[in-house]
Amino acid sequence: xxxxxxxxxxxxxxxxxxxxxxxxxxxxxxxxxxxxxxxxxxxxxxxxxxxxxxxxxxxxxxxxxxxxxxxxxxxxxxxxxxxxxxxxxxxxxxxxxxxxxxxxxxxxxxxxxxxxxxxxxxxxxxxxxxxxxxxxxxxxxxxxxxxxxxxxxxxxxxxxxxxxxxxxxxxxxxxxxxxxxxxxxxxxxxxxxxxxxxxxxxxxxxx
Length: 207
Prior knowledge:
Elements: E1 2-6, H1 11-22, E2 26-31, E3 43-47, H2 54-60, E4 66-69, H3 78-95, E5 100-104, H4 120-136, E6 140-146, E7 148-150, E8 157-159, E9 167-169, H5 170-180, E10 189-195, E11 198-199, H6 200-205
Parallel strand pairs: 1-2, 1-4, 2-3, 4-5, 5-6, 6-10, 7-9
Antiparallel strand pairs: 8-10, 8-11
């Protein structure tokens, strides 16, 4: 498949690009600083400005067959990037008549009563972008909500039975995101995740 990633230079984006290339896909790697990406037969760097218009963003999607949103401003541009940028990418995806859309969110983003105080503004941006995706689009979406991201080696084992705080290897998050493409049973689902004891494929089959 030809797959567009918004946020390809981020920690998750870089891992996700590698995982998708390993699966044999061609990745349109969308980033604000696409010059930091290495082009190859499988990776096509694309300039992506989430401050742009919906039509401008749609042009960057080219002939992609699926879209990932894994971009983030690390708290520096929450309204324009994490919230409105995400919404505009959804609108652009629909404008291009692409159906499959996979959205990286945050743990309990749709359950404000479970938020801590540290990331409140970030969670607010995810709350509204997640709800827009669910209520305002016709996309075949999956929303993945991991907890704290750790720069540790992933072992390919997770849990989706989350009731409290979770920690997640970035590699495991990327592996789950890549695997979602092969699991149509996850369409129109919100999946909470943390590192655990169940192999990723088995865990996703049970969602």
